[in-house]
Amino acid sequence: MTPAVSPEWMNWAQAKCDELMPKYSSGPLPFMEFDATGKLVSAWNVMDSDDALDDLGRGVVFAQLLIHHVKSKQDLRIHPLLFVLEVLMAIGRKGDPGWVERGFLGRFAILAMAASLN
Predict the structure, then answer these.
(1) What's the pLDDT score for residue 29?
(2) What is the C-alpha separation between 79 and 85, in angstroms, rounded?
(3) What's the half-sphere exposure (Cβ side, CA atoms, 13 Å) at 27?
(4) Is the pTM value of this prediction over 0.90?
(5) pLDDT tens digits for 54-110?
(6) Angle formed by the axes of helices 80-94 and 52-72, to 10°?
(7) Hey, what long-range contacts does 89-98 have (CB within 8 A, 24 or more apart)?
């Protein structure tokens, strides 16, 4: 069942984004997994919870964090577009997208559509 995205939920998602951005904007991204040496183990290590709306919101926030991270080019050892591609490919390899992935990919789709209109 598709969760209902209301104006209240949109406000909640924006508040969640405002809350998490300072926490993760200068550090490692919360959806990535690294080993003890700092080597990337997984570009997408996310588990769904029992709350579809919360998961959808987390996906939107994760997309915003990735965009911020790439735009500021923090700790990137590869080209920013390849960095984004690696995350998208990791989501694809996971298969069977949950609500977090849907929120993440939905945010990217909205941004791509907006960019194409400019």
Answers:
(1) 86
(2) 10
(3) 9
(4) no
(5) 888 889 889 988 888 888 775 667 788 888 899 999 999 988 899 999 999 998 888
(6) 160
(7) 89/43, 90/42, 90/43, 90/44, 91/44, 94/44, 98/46, 98/48, 98/55
| Structure letter (DSSP) for residue 2 | P
What's the burial of 9, exposed, middle or buried (CB within 10 Å: 0-12/13-18/19+)?
middle
Q: What letter represents residue 90's amino acid?
A: A
Q: Backbone phi, then psi, for 3, in 5-degree steps?
A: -70, 150
Residues 6+ apart with CB under 8 A from 105: 59, 63, 88, 91, 97
Cα–Cα distance between 55 and 94 in angstroms, integer?
16
Question: Which one, of 26, 5, 2, lies nearest residue 110 by Cα?
Answer: 5
